[in-house]
């Protein structure tokens, strides 16, 4: 089958979903392609900061997302030897220290407000494999596998919102500089004890960050930094001494952790890196979100940056002038802010241990 739209967006993550919504509202015809069969299938960042919140509110999407369920963080606590040593409370004007929004709620909330537009199509279970060019080398479409069928979508502009391992970036031969940050991350999810407050709790274990994030629906997400590339080695060690370090840091979780985290298999490994591209697109094609600037999980910036990219890119695209769109305008508007966030992440990673110094001295 062949399709045509003004814009073809590859990837229905936060960047692709929001951009699709905004462009459809501006009257552009949009086809949004997602390789997974359902939205929000891959585990990704779920902490919205006040900037991401502001973008959703600006476009009247926050209420739809909130109706599906979210949780505002009421404090940030630093722990040492099982006790709170420092507490940060929200600026009363902002009212929270981040909002946990399940990925599926965010994406469904946005797309529920989009599906009724005639100029919008979304194909799930559709994986883009190839880019099409015209004789001048301009990108004019994509080839994808939809269920088991090969389809072709031609468009004025192809948008790569396909995340950290972007196929669109690779097929367009756009170079990306990758940087490791000295750590990888283990994730696990456990039920929260009754009356567990909506909070972020942090501890320092063997000079590495251990974080607990309260989640919507009564869960706690555990994020535990480990030495870069060390998981294979770690897995050969006995598990009990490792998990006891978590219990020592947060004794109130002893019972639940013992019941729910019993082996290395209960953790999921995230290969932590950041990356950036010197060029954000080319003729007929533009990248945004993680596809053009992957961030580490530190400080929970990636989701919010992806939403801001979509907001900015949508402001530059008009139905009458898609072919005149110049990717450099978009890059100029966003690249500086992205560089600053990446620098902020590195600073946070390098100074995390300082939060615990008072206690040690
Ligand atoms: C474990 C983890 C925790 C994180 N925690 C936070 C956090 O708390 N707060 C925060 O702000 N950020 C966090 N981040 C970062 C955040 O998740 C990302 O920055 C954000 O999701 C980027 O959005 P995106 O839309 O650019 O890309 P993605 O969310 O990666 O979405 C890309 C989409 O494209 C689809 N896709 C990929 N290839 C193809 C293809 N060939 N064809 C069709 N579809 C395709 C994918 O299936 C996916 O749905 C975290 C990231 C990870 C991995």
From TrEMBL:
Keyword Oxidoreductase among record annotations: yes
Enzyme class: oxidoreductase
Protein name: 2-octaprenyl-3-methyl-6-methoxy-1,4-benzoquinol hydroxylase
InterPro entries: FAD-bd, FAD/NAD-bd_sf, PheA/TfdB_FAD_monoxygenase
Keywords assigned: Oxidoreductase
GO molecular function: FAD binding; oxidoreductase activity
Coiled coil, from the record: none
Organism, as annotated: Lysinibacillus sphaericus
UniProt cross-references to SUPFAM superfamilies, sorted A to Z: FAD/NAD(P)-binding domain
Record-linked Pfam families: FAD_binding_3 (PF01494)
Domain FAD-binding, residue spans: 5-318
Keyword hit for Oxidoreductase: yes
């Amino acid at each position: 089958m062949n399709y045509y739209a003004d814009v073809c967006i590859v990837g229905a993550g936060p960047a692709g979903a929001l951009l699709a919504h905004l462009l459809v509202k501006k009257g552009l015809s949009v086809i949004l392609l997602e390789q997974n069969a359902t939205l929000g299938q891959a585990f990704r960042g779920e902490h919205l900061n006040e900037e991401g919140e502001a973008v959703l509110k600006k476009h009247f999407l926050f209420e739809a997302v909130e109706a599906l369920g979210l949780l505002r963080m009421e404090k940030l606590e630093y722990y040492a030897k099982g006790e709170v040593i420092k507490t940060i409370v929200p600026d009363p004007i902002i009212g929270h220290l981040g909002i946990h929004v399940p990925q599926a709620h965010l994406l469904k909330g946005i797309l529920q407000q989009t599906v009724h537009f005639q100029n919008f199509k979304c194909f799930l279970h559709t994986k883009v494999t190839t880019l099409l060019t015209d004789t001048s080398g301009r990108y004019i479409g994509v080839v994808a596998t939809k269920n088991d069928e090969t389809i072709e979508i031609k468009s004025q502009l192809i948008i790569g919102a396909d995340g950290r391992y972007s196929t669109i970036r690779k097929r367009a031969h756009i170079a990306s500089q990758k940087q490791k940050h000295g750590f990888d991350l283990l994730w696990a999810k456990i039920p929260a004890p009754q009356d567990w407050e909506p909070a972020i709790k942090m501890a320092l274990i063997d000079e590495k960050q251990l974080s607990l994030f309260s989640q919507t629906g009564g869960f706690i997400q555990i994020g535990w930094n480990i030495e870069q590339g060390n998981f294979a080695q770690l897995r050969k060690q006995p598990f009990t001494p490792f998990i006891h370090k978590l219990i020592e840091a947060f004794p109130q979780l002893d019972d639940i952790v013992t019941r729910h985290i019993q082996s290395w298999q209960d953790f999921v490994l995230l290969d932590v890196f950041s990356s950036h591209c010197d060029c954000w697109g080319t003729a007929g094609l533009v990248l945004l979100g993680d596809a053009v600037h992957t961030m580490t999980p530190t400080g929970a910036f990636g989701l919010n940056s992806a939403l801001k990219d979509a907001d900015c890119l949508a402001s530059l695209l008009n139905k009458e002038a898609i072919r005149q769109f110049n990717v450099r305008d978009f890059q100029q508007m966003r690249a500086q802010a992205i560089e600053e966030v990446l620098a902020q992440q590195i600073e946070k990673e390098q100074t995390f241990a300082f939060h615990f110094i008072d206690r040690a001295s």
